UniProtKB/TrEMBL annotation, chain A:
<dbReference type="Pfam" id="PF00432">
    <property type="entry name" value="Prenyltrans"/>
</dbReference>
<comment type="subunit">
    <text>Heterodimer of an alpha and a beta subunit.</text>
</comment>
<feature type="domain" description="Prenyltransferase alpha-alpha toroid">
    <location>
        <begin position="6"/>
        <end position="336"/>
    </location>
</feature>
<dbReference type="InterPro" id="IPR045089">
    <property type="entry name" value="PGGT1B-like"/>
</dbReference>
<protein>
    <recommendedName>
        <fullName>Protein farnesyltransferase subunit beta</fullName>
        <ecNumber>2.5.1.58</ecNumber>
    </recommendedName>
</protein>
<keyword id="KW-0808">Transferase</keyword>
<dbReference type="GO" id="GO:0006629">
    <property type="term" value="P:lipid metabolic process"/>
</dbReference>
<comment type="function">
    <text>Catalyzes the transfer of a farnesyl moiety from farnesyl diphosphate to a cysteine at the fourth position from the C-terminus of several proteins. The beta subunit is responsible for peptide-binding.</text>
</comment>
<dbReference type="GO" id="GO:0008270">
    <property type="term" value="F:zinc ion binding"/>
</dbReference>
UniProtKB/TrEMBL annotation, chain B:
<keyword id="KW-0637">Prenyltransferase</keyword>
<keyword id="KW-0007">Acetylation</keyword>
<dbReference type="GO" id="GO:0005953">
    <property type="term" value="C:CAAX-protein geranylgeranyltransferase complex"/>
</dbReference>
<dbReference type="GO" id="GO:0004660">
    <property type="term" value="F:protein farnesyltransferase activity"/>
</dbReference>
<comment type="function">
    <text>Essential subunit of both the farnesyltransferase and the geranylgeranyltransferase complex. Contributes to the transfer of a farnesyl or geranylgeranyl moiety from farnesyl or geranylgeranyl diphosphate to a cysteine at the fourth position from the C-terminus of several proteins having the C-terminal sequence Cys-aliphatic-aliphatic-X. May positively regulate neuromuscular junction development downstream of MUSK via its function in RAC1 prenylation and activation.</text>
</comment>
<comment type="similarity">
    <text>Belongs to the protein prenyltransferase subunit alpha family.</text>
</comment>
<protein>
    <recommendedName>
        <fullName>Protein farnesyltransferase/geranylgeranyltransferase type-1 subunit alpha</fullName>
        <ecNumber>2.5.1.58</ecNumber>
        <ecNumber>2.5.1.59</ecNumber>
    </recommendedName>
</protein>
<dbReference type="GO" id="GO:0005965">
    <property type="term" value="C:protein farnesyltransferase complex"/>
</dbReference>
<comment type="subunit">
    <text>Heterodimer of FNTA and FNTB (farnesyltransferase). Heterodimer of FNTA and PGGT1B (geranylgeranyltransferase).</text>
</comment>
Length: 375, 325
């Protein structure tokens, strides 16, 4: 087999076009447009393709229109706020990383939104009147930490709720009782890492579960035991290994490798490069499936994880194929480039943490009514 | 027929989407899509609570069932207009059958069931969805919610056994097995634990390379101690001859590790290290990095104390020397 090649130019053209125009087959993602921004921008940053300043500014202005007057971001202009597009919008703005981008985020209102979806048991609903699952804790923790609006009270009881999602398999389900699943396991674990509580998990059981999700023939990862491989799990599953490595290190584990993650990095790169690329650009689940921006983002993110071991101090690369296959490293908690994480933290930590209005679900209309009544 | 051409809608001014002057991720909506959503935005702006609004939400949903803003609005209308919730159950049943992998449809069904306080159709409905995709995560989530909320535990173990007969490799069903037992009898009683261990071993004999069965076996024993179950290690060593698999070998490592925790013996450690080596180099090479880590970890934790003392070296110092500190 010849050395596999990352089809950089083709992926670049696919992404460049999608950032501006999408066919009507994307009507099903009309309530996820900040996601489209994030998936495309993150893919471009992994490919180390610069975002032209005009485009970046247009993204900022669009995301500003997706921001809800009551805080948080919605799937499109005029829609209600939802934690998933909120996560995506904040990440996209941090990738852009300009003052204009950071200034789009109304931090005070964002905090109000997070309070409005917080539940008494420590969990979060995805949107007002919406469903609970562990994705919400990750989305909330991610945006709160990046924009410096995190307070201990906001995440009170959240770690213990997340912990209840770890099951007999060692991985995490979407809510307590459910089957362990790569996407939810990533969200729960990354949320706990942000909150500094990852040691509360049974890390050894989690490690055994996630390494067992790498398919011995395909080289890629499955999302759940006894299911099929899917390119997107290259990130959700493989991305857990850097998180666990760090967690074990913090616990004083002395036997960790100094060169490799605890998964077969080469096999994952082979799966992605040989089986998950569309020759016309874009990446996909498995051969025979259609390309899409979600799979493009997460296949490339997984490829980056598989290529780069270590952190700022210790870095070891394993690039399968040509040196030109090398992607930029990605931060395993936020899944944007580490420099953008650092830059955002630096920017927002200069600002004071907003005072929250903690009356859960209190609307501004209600407050105005009450004060008027008293006067 | 477009809404913009309907007489009964002439009083309402459609609201086009405000994407701004230089849109990004701009979707090339069909004429129908734009028309319906222009009118949806108009209704939302007015907060109109009418039957025509209710009817339009169904069209908006059909065009994009993931639009959670539309679903929320539909629920507001259901309550404001005192709509027939039985009819809504029929509606949501059809929608889920068409689009079973969508978050919003299942959440909507849950809300309607809660409002009606009537779970009587749920188990049969979910069983039907599972008959089409036995691993649908939303379906299992809804099922667990219904069972727990309305205490419908009685026939679920039977349902689990039926599905395991159909596909013993369905991991979602093994999870459901654990869900039911842990919330009913629990695993504390020796009778139940033994029944479950025997059940696993029987399934393993029939399908030795079924990871789910091995994971379940470990899952139910790990908190009590793998070596706590008498004769199990011997049974597994027997199975190793005729029904070997990477999962069996991993289970062996776990048994040895558990034994070491209670009684640190050089012979047990050596066996554990040997199996790790065998897995890393031959039987489970995709997980080589992990098995080698586990091997080093076991060696470091269970290094024979008296051997080290004989050598006059403290165990901690020896570990440091090994790690090049």
């Amino acid at each position: 087999l010849p050395r596999p090649t990352l089809l950089r130019e083709q992926h670049y053209q696919y992404l460049k076009k999608g950032l501006r125009h999408l066919s009507d087959s994307y009507e099903c993602l009309d309530a996820s447009r900040p996601w489209l921004c994030y998936w495309i921008l993150h893919s471009l940053e992994l490919l180390e393709e610069p975002i032209p300043a005009a485009v970046a500014s247009d993204v900022c202005q669009f995301l500003a229109r997706c921001q809800s007057p009551t805080g948080g971001f919605a799937g499109g202009p005029g829609q209600h706020a939802h934690l998933a597009p909120t996560y995506a919008a904040v990440n996209a703005l941090c990738i852009i990383g300009t003052e204009e981008a950071y200034n789009v985020i109304d931090r005070e209102k964002l905090l109000d939104f997070l309070w409005s979806v917080k539940q008494p048991d420590g969990s979060f609903v995805m949107h007002v009147g919406g469903e609970v699952d562990v994705r919400s804790a990750y989305c909330a923790a991610s945006v709160a930490s990046l924009t410096n609006i995190l307070t201990p009270k906001l995440f009170e009881d959240t770690p213990s709720w997340i912990l209840r999602c770890q099951n007999w398999e060692g991985g995490l389900g979407g809510v307590p009782g459910l089957e362990a699943h790569g996407g939810y396991t990533f969200c729960g674990t990354a949320a706990l890492v942000i909150l500094g509580k990852e040691h509360m998990l049974d890390l050894k059981a989690l490690l055994r579960w996630v390494v067992s999700r790498q398919m011995r023939f395909e080289g890629g990862f499955q999302g759940r035991c006894n299911k099929l491989v899917d390119g997107c799990y290259s990130f959700w599953q493989a991305g857990l290994l850097p998180l666990l490595h760090r967690a074990f290190f913090k616990e004083g584990e002395s036997q960790l490798s100094r060169q490799r993650w605890m998964f077969e990095q080469q096999a994952l790169q082979e799966y992605i490069l040989l089986c998950c690329q569309n020759p016309a650009g874009g990446l996909l689940d498995k051969p025979g499936k259609s390309r899409d921006f979600y799979h493009t983002c997460y296949c490339l993110s997984g490829l980056s994880i598989a290529q780069h071991f270590g952190n700022v101090d210790l870095h070891h690369e394993l690039i399968l194929g040509k040196e030109e296959n090398r992607l930029a490293p990605t931060h395993p908690v936020y899944n944007i480039c580490p420099e953008k994480v650092a830059q955002a933290l630096q920017h927002f930590h200069q600002l004071p943490v907003p005072e929250a209005d903690q009356r859960h679900g209190a609307s501004t209309d209600m407050r105005a009514g009450v004060t008027a009544g008293i006067a | 027929m477009f809404y913009r051409d309907r007489k009964e809608w002439a009083d309402l001014e459609p609201v086009p989407q405000d994407d701004g002057p230089n849109p990004v991720v701009k979707i090339a909506y069909s004429e129908k899509f734009s028309d319906v959503y222009d009118y949806f935005r108009a209704l939302l702006k007015k907060d109109e609570r009418s039957d025509r609004a209710f009817a339009l939400t169904a069209e908006a949903i059909e065009l994009n069932a993931a639009n959670y803003t539309v679903w929320h609005y539909r629920r507001v209308l259901l309550q404001a207009l005192q709509k027939d919730l039985r009819e809504e159950m029929r509606y949501i049943t059809d929608i889920i059958e068409e689009q079973p992998k969508n978050y919003q449809v299942w959440h909507h069904r849950r809300m309607v069931v809660e409002w009606l306080n009537d779970p009587s159709e749920e188990l049969e409905f979910i069983a039907d969805i599972l008959s089409q995709d036995a691993k649908n995560y939303h379906a299992w989530q809804h099922r667990q919610w219904v069972i727990q909320e309305y205490k419908l535990w009685d026939n679920e173990l039977e349902f689990v056994e039926k599905l395991l007969e159909e596909d013993v490799r369905n991991n979602s069903v093994w999870n459901q097995r654990h869900f039911v037992i842990s919330h009913t009898t629990g695993y504390s009683s020796p009778a139940i634990l033994d029944r479950e261990v025997q059940y696993c071993l029987n399934q393993i004999r029939k399908a030795p390379h079924n990871e789910s069965a091995w994971n379940y076996l470990k899952g139910i024993l790990q908190d009590r101690g793998m070596s706590s179950h008498p004769g199990l290690l011997e049974q597994v060593l027997e199975l190793k001859e005729t029904h070997c698999s990477p999962y069996l070998l991993a289970f062996l490592v776990d048994c040895y590790e558990d034994a070491l925790e209670n009684n640190n013996q050089k012979e047990t450690l050596n066996r554990a290290l040997e199996v790790c080596e065998y897995l890393a180099q031959e039987k489970d090479t995709i997980r080589k990095e992990y098995w080698l880590f586990l091997q080093r970890s076991l060696e470091s934790r269970f290094e024979c104390i008296d051997v080290l003392l004989c050598q006059g070296i403290s165990p901690l110092l020896k570990s440091d020397i090994k790690n090049g500190v």
